[in-house]
Each structure stands twice: as C-alpha cells, then as structure tokens.
Design goal:
Elements (H helix, E strand, L loop, with lengths): L14 E2 L6 E7 L3 H12 L5 E4 L11 E4 L2 E4 L5 E2 L5 H8 L14 E5 L7 H20 L14 H14 L4 H22 L22 E2 L9 H6 L6 E3 L3 E5 L5 E2 L8 E7 L12 E7 L4 H12 L4 E5 L4 E9 L3 H11 E2 L4 H9 L1 E3 L1 E7 L11 E5 L14 H11 L6 E6 L2 E7 H7 L4 H16 L9 E4 L12 E3 L6 H8 L13 E3 L12 H16 L16 H10 L1
Parallel strand pairs: 1-9, 2-3, 2-15, 3-9, 7-19, 10-16, 15-24
Antiparallel strand pairs: 4-5, 6-8, 10-14, 11-12, 12-13, 14-15, 17-23, 18-21, 18-22, 19-20, 20-21
Helix pairs in contact: 1-14, 3-4, 3-5, 4-5, 9-13
Length: about 575
C-alpha cells in the first residue's frame, strides 16, 4: 500500500522477481482475495500449473493490516459482512479465527453539534429509525414493479424527498434544523458504506441489487488480514511472483502475417476472426503493431507472439513475457478504469469498456489517531459530528477546477461524519469521495492537527491531546487499487457488472475462455465485498476445471452454502 504505514512487508508465501518457467496453464493477475481464491480452488482440485502475478510486494490486495501500538489495525477490509452462507465466515470458523464468546462492548453513540452541544439520545434514535426506513424503501424499487416519483433517479434524491416530507411535520425551526443535520450525517455515513462521493450518484432502481447476508457484521479478533494465511498455506511458494505489475495482456491468436506498406521496420501481426469472410474488409479484424526494430523488449514480445502456441501472452512491466492457456484477470475496477485502453491487446470489446466507465469506483479512506492516554468518556464508543452545512449549489453551479480545490481546502474535513473508538487510545474516522481524495494529498501531521481541532470543538474541551501518531489510508493514490470498491452509479445496472465478468475467447471454437474476469466488481449481488471477490475467483477457477464432457463435479465443502446457491441463480 505504499505510504499506508508498514503495509508493504514481504510475504514469505511468495517471491519477488521472475519465475523460471514461462508457460503455464493458468496465469492469475492479482493476489487479492479473488486471485487467492482462484488459486486455492485450482490447487485443491489438483491443478498446480498456475502462476499469480502481483504488482505489490505483498499479497492481499485491499486486505492489509499494520501494527499500531499494541494492536493490529486494518487499513482495508474491516468486517465479514453477514454470517449465513458467507464463505469468509466459514473459512474463519474453520481456522479458529472467530471468537465464539462474544462479550458485547458498551456501545454508546453520542451526536454533537459544532458548538459542542450533545443531542438527546431519543432524537438520535428517532431520526436513525426513520432514516433506515427511508433507505429500505429505496431498496424495494429493485424488486417491485412500481416506479419512483418523476425526476427522482438517485438514492440521495429519494431520501432527501422523504426527509423533507418527514420534517414538514416538525413545527419548531430549531428542532427541524437539528433533525436535518442528523439526516445529513447519516447520508455521509452511507457514502462510506456504499463507496461514493454523494448518495446522489447511486442509482435508485439498482440499490436493492446488493444482497445482504444475514447475521450482522463480524470483526475477527486477529483482524481481517489474518484470513490471508490459511489461503496462502495451500499455495506452492513458487507460484506467486510479487512486485511484478502486468503491462499488457495479449489475448487473440495470431493467424496471419502480412506486410503493411509504409510499416518500415515494424512487423504487423494480424489478428483475424476465424469466421470472418475471406473477402471482407478490415472492420472485423484488429491489427496490432509490434515494433521489432526498437527496444529489446519489443523485439522479444514480437518473437514470442509469432512463435507461441498459447492462447494468451502476459507482458510484465519488467519485460518478462509469460504464456498461458487461460488468464484470470482480478485487477480492481479502479485499475481497469485507468488502464483498460492500454492493458489489453487487442482492445476490450466496446460493451465492456462502456460498462467499466458506467460503474462507480469510489474512494473511502480511514484516519487512525493513536494517543498516549484515554481522554474520551469510557462509556462513549462513537461521537457523530453534526456539521452545519453550507447550502449546496445546484448541480450546474458545482465548483470545478480552482474553485473546487479552494472549497476542498477550506472544508474537506466536514466530510468526516464521526470518530469511533477502536480502543481507549485509538480513534478511527472515515471520509469518502472528493474530500477523501483531497485528504490523500495532505501530510499526516496536517490531518492530525485538523482532527484535534475538530475533537476539541465538538467535545467542548480545549485540552483534548494531540495524537502521538496518525495513519491515513490513500486508496485512490495507490496505483494497484485506484479507489476502494464498486457501486452502481445512476444510469448503470447489474448488467454492467455481468458485462465486465463476461469472459473473452480468442476464437469462436474454443471450449474454454482465454481471459476470465474476477473480483468484487464482477459479482452482481455481492459487489463491494470480500466474499463477492472470493466467490467470483472460485467461479472462474471452476469454469476452467469443469471438463468439456458432462460429468459429476465435486465442489469444495462449502458449496451447499446460500451464497453459492445465490451465485448459481445469478449464473443462470
């Protein structure tokens, strides 16, 4: 994770550099949860001829922890979302990572206004219950036939409409204003849960497409990252190569060569659809030019392209070229958004590119503050920050460029909706969207100072100490994530997730695809979750393992779980 503390320690389950063997049955791009899941499923079913290529110098992707004080803190994934049918919960149980004796911690949330006044708890409870009800109503549109009011397309617009109707019945302006601030705070919290800048970006009709597993959120006592060890234990050490970013995936077979006038010292490799008519023009072909007169790397790739019998060639940033029958690409949606045009040769089909563009890949960051001594009241577990809101300008007047930069500089911190206690001496703040991206440009010292000012103001206590250490994540800045997780933007749908998940075939006669896609952004029901990534990786591996002739398939033991069952329905 680069500058996210000491997250980049080398993992002894893998090695850095180059694999001796250059041809493999399967190459997996990315050693996050989807990649590790694919590799595990292949290994458990007797296929060990695979190689994982990982850009970072560690495995785990968006699951990563660092030591802070006497405890581990999770910079990425935090919770196992749901118990019933969740393969991550089953894996954690299997390896003794779940604490069966759950001693409930005192959980007292307080909400305070900018002048340090605390809101009576019953008002907080009343507004929270109303908010949950409004959110549930938004989710119903996905399954129901009725339509929302005209001109209401996003979750944010719908909730704000309900909020206005709800507050109309409150006579006292002061009471009305206070309740409005609580609703706004809860909407900010929702942007961190959903992974967006504003709930106005989230498609109303698609909100219910996300399937919530029952059983609440589970925190592993040893941290989410402790789940990586059991996943890596089964994998041969030599099958993972770290610090090896992939530059390009060449996925179409070369079936003809022809000289192109004026190409000079270039060898043009023609990729032809086998079912194309002999006398058709170039509209159904992709011509990829590989310069062979220039750099040695280019010459190398051109030669391998010419002579290889493999379906796919994977070209790495360090110049190494690997050959594979199949590639499972688990690069995050943020990386695909940034590199989809250059990462695949030939370019991805247009429908895929459009779906990659349509979906949202938002930024959600964490701010950890570590103290020498406890200062928050022992019974308080979280303090919600009810910021006074400047009236937001109409969409067409939204600031851009320098004006936006100035506004972010003045008020980025107003997107932090609360500070919660991880322990008596460790606080955690969440921030999302453009404000999170702006925070990533600041030094940790500047963030720590600002957070201290906020706590002093809202707690009405000028003696709140400065933290001895501040750690902020930077998921947008990280080259191998470029954001946090997937959400369905206004105008996008589950179809876009299915489009990205569609495999690529090098020729129409192939029984198994050349390139498959996995990761949380490819699961139509469990996008944005680790279990979504895990299941998508397992599904990709299973497609490659399934024999061409029908016979009984024995899945691993958790195939009877609800999530696999839902996955089965989704595939049909």
């Amino acid at each position: 994770m680069g500058d996210d503390g000491g997250a980049g320690t080398k993992d002894d389950t893998a090695k850095t550099g180059m694999s001796e063997k250059r041809k493999h049955k399967v190459i997996i791009v990315g050693a996050g949860m989807a990649g590790l899941s694919s590799a595990n499923h292949l290994a458990k079913n007797g296929c060990t001829d695979f190689l994982i290529l990982e850009g970072r110098n560690r495995v785990g992707g968006r699951i990563v922890s660092i030591d802070m004080g006497s405890q581990k803190i999770e910079l990425g994934a935090n919770w196992i979302h749901g118990v019933l049918g969740n393969p991550m919960f089953e894996l954690a149980m299997q390896h003794g990572l779940v604490s069966i004796i759950n001693i409930p911690k005192p959980h007292k949330v307080v909400a305070a206004t900018e002048d340090g006044k605390q809101v009576p708890f019953q008002i907080l409870q009343e507004i929270y219950e109303a908010y949950v009800c409004f959110l549930r109503r938004c989710e119903e549109y996905f399954l129901c036939q009725y339509l929302p009011p005209p001109d209401i397309h996003s979750v944010g617009e719908h909730i704000n409409l309900e909020v206005d109707l709800y507050l109309n019945s409150v006579e006292c302006q002061k009471e009305k204003h206070l309740r409005k601030l609580i609703f706004e705070c809860l909407l900010k919290r929702e942007t961190c849960i959903t992974g967006c800048h504003s709930m106005d970006e989230i498609d109303l009709l698609e909100l219910g497409s996300y399937t919530e597993l029952q059983g609440g959120n589970i925190v592993l006592p040893s941290g989410y990252s402790s789940i990586l060890k059991p996943l890596c234990d089964h994998l041969p050490k030599d099958n993972i190569i770290l610090s090896c970013p992939v530059k390009r995936i060449h996925w179409k077979r070369k079936v003809a060569h022809r000289a192109t006038p004026g190409a000079g010292a270039r060898d043009t490799i023609l990729e032809e659809d086998e079912d194309a008519g002999a006398d058709s023009d170039d509209s159904d072909r992709t011509v990829t030019e590989v310069p062979i007169g220039g750099a040695a790397a280019d010459e190398g790739i051109a030669n391998v392209l010419k002579n290889s019998s493999a379906n796919v060639l994977v070209e790495c940033e360090n110049g190494t070229v690997y050959e594979a029958d199949h590639v499972i690409c688990t690069l995050p949606l943020g990386v695909l958004k940034e590199q989809s045009e250059t990462l695949f040769a030939p370019a991805l089909p247009q429908y895929k590119v459009e779906s990659i563009d349509s979906l949202l890949f938002g930024t959600v960051d964490k701010i950890f503050l570590e103290y020498d001594r406890p200062f928050l009241n022992a019974t308080i577990s979280e303090i919600m920050l009810l910021w006074e809101q400047e009236a937001s300008p109409p969409e067409e007047d939204e600031p851009t460029g320098g004006a936006l930069e100035q506004r972010l500089k003045e008020s980025w911190f107003k997107k932090i909706y609360s500070f919660s206690k991880v322990s008596d001496t460790l606080l955690l703040g969440w921030i999302s969207g453009r404000e999170a991206e702006y925070m990533e440009t600041l030094s940790h010292e500047v963030v720590a100072e600002r957070c201290t000012d906020i706590l002093r103001q809202f707690l009405k206590d000028p003696f709140v100490p400065k933290p001895k250490r501040c750690v902020c994540t930077s998921w947008k800045k990280q080259p191998f994530s470029r954001g946090s997780y997937t959400a369905i933007a206004v105008g996008a749908s589950q179809d876009d997730i299915d489009n990205i998940a569609q495999p690529l075939y090098s020729s129409p006669h192939q029984s198994k695809p050349s390139v498959m896609f996995a990761g949380e952004h490819t699961h139509a029901n469990f996008y944005s979750t680790v279990h979504g990534a895990y299941l998508s990786g397992r599904t990709a591996a299973q497609i490659l393992l399934t024999p061409d002739s029908p016979q009984e398939i024995v899945m691993e033991s958790d195939s009877s779980d609800l999530s696999s069952w839902i996955q089965g329905i989704a595939l049909d």
